[in-house]
Design goal:
This protein has 671 residues and is of the alpha+beta class. Among the domains are: 54 residues, no CATH class; 85 residues. The chain is built from 15 helices and 17 strands. The strands form six sheets. Strands 4, 5, 6, 7, 8 and 9 form a six-stranded antiparallel sheet that branches. β15 and β16 form a beta hairpin. The chain is flat, with a radius of gyration of 50 Å.
């Protein structure tokens, strides 16, 4: 074994000693969230229950919270931005650097890389992001940077002395990998077959079929002389002679070495670009106790409550399974003649039975067996464990969008903010790590893009452009960009992804044009520029060609600009006067309408008064007619009475005359 490999093994074993307790707990967290039948049960207890025929249920309540937190991070992916911070730096070069990084992210599928690391931090407390480089293609000598997922975080042995929250202070790191032995012998036919064995997790079931290799990154610090002369600040080359420098001092230059090794020797060796270890950790919930790092996942404190929930759910199911299937208890011979009725007791109006059993002895009536009642303690315990799961994570129903006892909008927002604050450290740690990824890329770009070349960049508006570097130029480029000059730093902002911003911009422009259609002549090209349907960009270009060229001309004569400003002021004054005239016209129209309404009201009142008088006259006329009718009736009655009286008088006179005639006749005096 070489001295170099022996020293590397010592470091790796020390890292394993520090990281193994963290990784063991992280593995248990991941296993707990798997679909294994023993994931959320003690294996011995689960086997004992299954052996006795009792249910062993797993009703996972934690996955919904893990997915919610993880998806919130996906919806607000951080964006790397570059800012100039030193001499010889400028905003245009910063924009070029930022465009290169966006191009690297796009080509690497950075969303998946960040989501993978963030998801591991949530699920088990630790994830990693890797920055690597390779040739652009098989026929090129130019290299490019890219980001890569690390799907097995436990294969990383990170510098155990690193204390930075983003791993920026790490001085070395190991990546352990398994390789098929046959493939290994083809690639390294003369190399030893000894594995770089640090932990039992990487020995494999069949050691003869595979070998463990280590990819080792370490920082080598080289002492150099820093010179400040008339050309600025620079590093003195080894064979360069000084010519009256203004100032010099000794400093160190960081060189990242990279090698692949087995258990006895180096297999490959190279230099990694930049000055940082290109492996960036993403921590979950971090705590330090007695100088030791502790990392926790989102669900670690909720695991006991979840196990209790599974236990009580299984107990409840077990009691229901043990409840009697028969609804009645009866002596033999008492119900056989009415078997159909007892099989369907809801059908007959009366359940009958024999008063004697099969032996002919008197028998008691069949007894109804009520269904089993689940003890309230089990039901309450299961409900309480549900609350315990949420309480241990600080997340409640409102965080999942479910209704709770918060009624007002303010109360609901406050409850949701409480949930967001409870898990904000996961998103914040991912933000810090992506910031470190930006620093790694920023320090590596000048070394990878060090020759004259044309590279693609992605602008802030997702435009795909080409730019020449280090002396190369493209059509329309009016200056040179040297990425090794100047100092720049990284900042990361969070928010919706560009596709969402594009949709938002499109909606804003549509609303502006809808409310002020005259602006279509000023910004119609922008309206269609941010739309995604086929042909939208062609429409944008066509509208742009029909617009006033002065809108796009930034080099006009100052006098022309002043005259245009005065003209604009006059136009604004005219618009104000037109507004005042329109306001006065509206007031006049309102006054005329008021007068017309008043006249109509007066006319309406006059018509109502005339109608009222007509009604009163008609009423008088009707009353007079009624009175006349009454008089006519009374006159008729009087005439009838008079006629009756005359008739009675005539009848009486005739009777009296007849009586006189009769009397005279009887006396014989007068016939």
């Amino acid at each position: 074994m070489s001295e170099f490999v022996e020293e590397a093994l010592k470091k790796a074993n020390k890292c394993h000693e520090v990281w193994q307790p963290i990784y063991d707990k992280a593995r248990d967290d991941l296993f707990f969230q798997s679909d294994d039948e023993y994931a959320q049960w003690n294996k011995r207890d689960a086997d004992a229950r299954r052996k006795s025929g009792r249910p062993v249920l797993t009703i996972d309540q934690t996955a919904q919270f893990v997915n919610q937190v993880s998806n919130d991070e996906r919806m607000n992916t951080p964006s790397i931005e570059i800012v100039p911070t030193g001499n010889n730096s400028d905003a245009e070069t910063a924009e070029i650097l930022q465009g290169i990084i966006k191009g690297i992210e796009y080509k690497s599928g950075a969303d998946a890389v960040y989501d993978n690391a963030g998801s591991f931090a949530i699920k088990c407390g630790i994830g990693y992001i890797r920055v690597d480089h390779d040739y652009s293609d098989d026929d090129s000598f130019e290299q490019e940077l890219y980001l890569e997922r690390i799907v097995n975080p436990f294969s990383i042995l990170f510098d155990h002395e690193s204390v930075a929250s983003d791993g920026s202070d790490a001085k070395y790191c190991f990546i352990l990998e398994k390789m098929d032995m046959e493939e290994y012998k083809k690639k390294y036919p003369d190399a030893s077959t000894a594995s770089f064995s640090v932990t039992d997790h990487y020995t494999g079931d069949n050691i003869n079929d595979e070998i463990i290799l280590a990819e080792y990154f370490y920082i080598e610090e080289k002492e150099v002389t820093l010179v400040r002369d008339i050309n600025g600040v620079r590093t003195l080359e080894d064979d360069e002679e000084l010519s009256e420098p203004l100032q010099t001092r000794k400093t160190t230059k960081r060189i990242v070495r990279r090698c692949k090794m087995n258990g006895e020797e180096k297999l490959e060796e190279s230099t990694a670009p930049g000055k940082y270890i290109p492996i960036v950790p993403v921590y979950g919930e971090e705590a330090w106790i007695d100088g030791k790092r502790h990392l926790m996942s989102l669900i670690r404190r909720a695991k006991d409550a979840q196990r209790m929930f599974n236990f009580w759910a299984s107990m409840e199911t077990e009691m229901l399974m043990r409840s009697p299937k028969a609804a009645f208890l009866a002596a033999a011979g008492t119900t056989e003649n009415y078997a159909d009725d007892y099989l369907n007791p809801d059908n007959p109006g009366v359940l009958r039975y024999e008063q004697t059993d099969a032996a002919g002895k008197p028998a008691a009536p069949p007894q109804f067996i009520p269904p089993v009642q689940i003890p309230a303690g089990i039901v309450n315990a299961r409900m309480q464990t549900t609350q315990d799961i949420r309480a241990t994570m600080g997340l409640y129903d409102s965080f999942l969008g479910q209704q709770d006892n918060a009624i007002s909008g303010i109360a609901i927002d406050n409850r949701q903010r409480e949930g967001n604050r409870a898990i904000f450290h996961f998103a914040d740690n991912l933000l810090r790590s992506i910031t470190q990824v930006g620093r790694v890329l920023l320090s590596a770009i000048p070394e990878i893009y060090d020759t004259p070349r044309v590279v693609p960049i992605i602008g802030k508006e997702e435009t795909n452009d080409m730019v020449g570097l280090n002396g190369a130029l493209v059509e329309g480029q009016d200056r040179h960009y040297y990425l090794s000059e100047g100092k720049y730093d990284v900042k990361v902002v969070t928010g919706a992804s560009f596709s969402t911003m594009r949709q938002e911009a499109s909606e804003v422009y549509q609303n502006i044009v809808a409310s002020q259609p005259q602006l279509m002549a000023v910004m119609g090209d922008l309206l269609f520029k941010y739309m995604d349907f086929p042909g939208a960009q062609s429409i944008s270009e066509r509208i742009k060609r029909t617009m006033d060229p002065n809108i796009f001309d930034d080099t006009q004569d100052p006098q022309v600009v002043a005259m245009q400003a005065q003209n604009q002021e006059l136009q604004q004054g005219i618009q104000v006067l037109e507004g005042q005239i329109a306001q006065l016209a509206q007031q006049l129209q309102d006054k005329q309408a008021e007068i017309q309404i008043k006249a109509q009201a007066e006319q309406y009142d006059a018509v109502n008064d005339a109608r009222k008088y007509e009604l009163e006259i008609e009423k008088i006329r009707i009353d007079a007619a009624n009175k006349q009718a009454e008089l006519d009736i009374k006159r008729g009655e009087l005439q009838l009475k008079q006629a009756e009286a005359i008739q009675r008088q005539d009848n009486k006179d005739r009777d009296d005359l007849r009586e006189i005639i009769i009397q005279l006749d009887s006396g014989g005096n007068i016939l």
